Request: fold
Amino acid sequence: MIKDKPCKGNNGNTKGLGCGKLTRVEYLKYGLGKMCGCLSNFYLNTEAGKLIVERSRLKAVSPRIKAQQDLETARQERKQKNSLGSLKVNVRTICHNYIKLRDKYKPCISCGQPWHKDFQAGHFYKAELYSTLKYDENNIHGQCAGCNIRKEGNLSPYAVNLPKRIGIELYDELNKKASLEKQTNFKWNRQTLSEIRKYYQLKIKQL
Reply:
């Protein structure tokens, strides 16, 4: 019997991507799930994924030589454009890598399960609902897959343990940021994302 596998990138292009949810093997490609949207996210928001899509399109509609020329042109255009979507994915990967390194050997923030190498970066305030807290290091902590995925964050014990982990002052500040989120029409830009990327790159070096 074939076991389900987690949605988790398995090569250089997709490594670090994926939601970690279990899915049927036939619904995985490059280690990413089709049904959960991670494969689509890879195709739409990463340079490597866009190039795969572009390569397939050109192969279908153009002679081989023209396809190679057009593909190189597309590669250069996308490299110059540095799309906001791909930058968000890149920042997310670096941010989550930092969280996993920072919280190495710490128990799950929710259930207290001893650290495991497969622990994920779990948000207290959900990234899809609180954009300004998506990359906030005080809002993201090492969490087991059971709490992060199957229990959708297991937020009740998370709320109890979070102030113990970061201190009551930072916890109150985090709650204040969350309350202000609904009062702002926040949008990410390349400059802000680039600054966050540099911040976490430096933090990783300092560990």
Observations:
- The chain has a mean pLDDT of 88.
